[in-house]
Amino acid sequence: MDHARAAISNLFSGEPMSYTRFSIARQTDGDNSHVEMKLSADDEEGGEAGRPEHLHAHVAQPWRNGKNLCFLLIAAFLLLLIGFLIGYLSYRGRMQLAAKCLEGGGKCEVTPTASYLADGDETEEEEVPGPPILYWPDLKNLLSTKLSDRRLEENLRQRANKNSFEAGQSEDENMAIYIHDLFKSFFLNQVWKDKHYIKLQVKGSTKNKVSVVEDGKEEELETPDAYVAYSETGTVTGKPVYANYGQKEDFQKLEKSAIELNGTIVIVRAGKITLAEKVVNAKEKGAVGVLMYLDPYKNTDDLVPFGHAHLGTGDPYTPGFPSFNHTQFPPIESSGLPHIAVQTISSHAASRLFSKMDGESCLPQWRGGLLVCKMTVRSDKQLTVKLEVNNVMVDRKILNIFGAITGFEEPDRYVVIGAQRDSWGPGAAKAGVGTAILLELARVISDIVKNEGYKPRRSIIFASWSAGDYGAVGATEWLEGYSATLHAKAFTYINLDAAVLGTNDIKISASPLLYALLERTMKGVNDPLISSRKLYDKVGSSWVKSIVPFGLDNAAFPFLAYSGIPVVSFGFYNKDEDYPFLGTTQDTVENLKAINSLYAHLRAAAEVAGQIALRLTHDHELFLDFGRYSEELLAFQEKFLVYDQDVKELGLNLDWLFLARGDFQRAANALRRDIENSDKENKVIRRALNDRIMKVEYDFLSPFLSPKDAPLRHIFFGKGSHTLQSLLDHLQLLKTSRSKVDLNMLKEQLALATWTIKGAANALEGDIWNTDNTF
């Protein structure tokens, strides 16, 4: 029919005497463009005479006599009749084929075009040659059907009766070889391993010791088996001060109470922020040491957690560089190393210490699960805490294991699904859960590709990381080793670590680019506790507002903040009580199995991760909501507006920053129009559009900073003065403490933020000749 219509069009139209030209003229005072219509080529200056600018423009020629008209009308009628017959026979043939498929119970192979812009999951049939692709509903059902509780249990059982999987040690290496061989048995297209040579701080031959010195007499408080990696070694002594969770606001409350912090050993409880952040906050106040304990919960008084104190990710002795064995490094270390002594203790030891302190009682909200809680000791009291740290540095070889399913259309574009493999103790919840899900997803998705005819457009990489317990070392070193290419090839990272720590609630951390996909996925996966309810119903329609910010202890964090790759990390947990065994010797399979319907939740977590990966490799367009960052920027603009007048009083203004935000919104709108108007059958155009989408996250890494000096360069999620949150904190000083405002620093922050956002807008526009530079 298309050929018939084209023939008729050619008969009744030639080259038009005039054509309609649209040009987009930018408004200078708003966020939206307006359309200016020009109805004649004569209105355009500089046009070449007789040559239309549009490829599909035609010039109509007048008919000269009625005889020709009659002849052409007859020809048109015959063409219409032939076209109708061809269309009818084609339609009748397809209906007969569909009937045979339904009658025989077989599978009709079709090739859909699946646009993420559509509201539903149904897809259209595509009239192009090529390998058949399953409909999305069929693919989703296949994933759900093939996931096996029994297989997940078998994978998790590999952690049973094991005491430790410490990075670079025998159990960790044996597990790496096991995963490598299992990937091969799944017939993945590629299976390989990366070796890294890293420096780790481990427990020395002499145990660390915490003592109380009172009136010159020393009493041993505890000699724990656990330790804190990257602590300063040696012996320190200081008065004990309790600082709740060790957050900045906790230390501010202590200062308001006139409690001296300089030269003290600070006691904090686990939670709210990472141990490394607690240590940094304590050091800023002059503390010489930090002790951290777990809040007591159900006979866990004697548990001592393992931790690390590096405020960063990766090997802290090769910051910004990959730890490959053929690279020689100068003597350098990360600025995130604490340089004060740090040790974890049991809540039983913390209770004993508090009982010896005779100062002011804790604030009610600071007490936690302890019966006795004191803030400090009296100034005339001769009581101090002595901390001895005997950790040692070692060189270790670690292995990252990878398996890949190669895409059929864009094999050099891939989604990465990863999980930490190592753990200081048994690590059933911390590393076993993620590894079990990773292996099951590799098996199931490979089976769907090999046996069900699924042809993923893009590749899927399954990754098992080592040294995750020391700050996502394995994952970060891989990112650093391939930093020049990964951001242009990997378009999403899905983190499976600690995906099941409870059953009642869901915790999600994600790039805004993945919010839309997450919401749709939750609407399609059943709640393990109530089969008739979806996960979306569990979290509610306002789930985005409760998204948890990324912490340094999340393995997805370096993918986002260092490499500019969209990420998602999620898991089941209990809001009212933390899983108490994480990072301890009691993180065993037996204790984990006490979680209600454990394997049903493992299966649900696998289904969420699997649907995200399959959707990203199934559709024509990448399912990344690039317009969401327009909303995030607008939210920051509303917060900045409060300080507009204060900034003007300094001789500065926020207008350029706001204009850059408007440029980004216009660029996002233009890309959306380009997608809607593009030819979905044209693979070259489709790939170019997808490349623009997948670069959005990367373009929010500040290009004006050195990755070596400031590796976490993302202006939304990074760490440093270049972030939008840091700019907001500085602006807040204009209201609260104007004398602390650093004018030069404020100018630099405004410039960096403005030009990073403007650069992201330019990149989103596409080709440089399409970029509007009237900023």
TrEMBL record:
Mind telling me which residue stretches traverse the membrane in this protein? 69-91
Membrane-topology descriptor: Single-pass type II membrane protein
Transferrin receptor-like dimerisation domain mapped to chain residues = 653-764
A Gene Ontology molecular function term for this protein is: protein kinase binding
Span of domain Peptidase M28: 400-594
Q: Which UniProt keywords apply?
A: Cell membrane, Disulfide bond, Endocytosis, Glycoprotein, Lipoprotein, Membrane, Palmitate, Phosphoprotein, Receptor, Signal-anchor, Transmembrane, Transmembrane helix
One GO biological process term: receptor internalization
Query: Where does this polypeptide localize?
Result: Cell membrane; Melanosome
UniProt KW Zinc keyword: no
Database matches in CDD domains: M28_TfR, PA_TfR
Q: Is the Transcription regulation keyword given for this protein?
A: no
Q: Which residues form a coiled coil?
A: none
Annotated Gene Ontology cellular components are:
basolateral plasma membrane; clathrin-coated pit; early endosome; endosome membrane; external side of plasma membrane; extracellular exosome; HFE-transferrin receptor complex; melanosome
Instruction: Kindly provide the PTM information from the record.
Output: Stearoylated.
Instruction: Give the PA domain ranges.
Output: 236-298
Which family does the record claim for this protein?
A: Belongs to the peptidase M28 family. M28B subfamily.
Listed PANTHER family: N-ACETYLATED-ALPHA-LINKED ACIDIC DIPEPTIDASE, TRANSFERRIN RECEPTOR PROTEIN 1
> Which proteins does it associate with, and in what oligomeric form?
Homodimer; disulfide-linked.
In UniProt terms, what function does this protein have?
A: Cellular uptake of iron occurs via receptor-mediated endocytosis of ligand-occupied transferrin receptor into specialized endosomes. Endosomal acidification leads to iron release. The apotransferrin-receptor complex is then recycled to the cell surface with a return to neutral pH and the concomitant loss of affinity of apotransferrin for its receptor. Transferrin receptor is necessary for development of erythrocytes and the nervous system. Acts as a lipid sensor that regulates mitochondrial fusion by regulating activation of the JNK pathway.
Descriptive protein name: Transferrin receptor protein 1
Identify the gene encoding this protein: TFRC
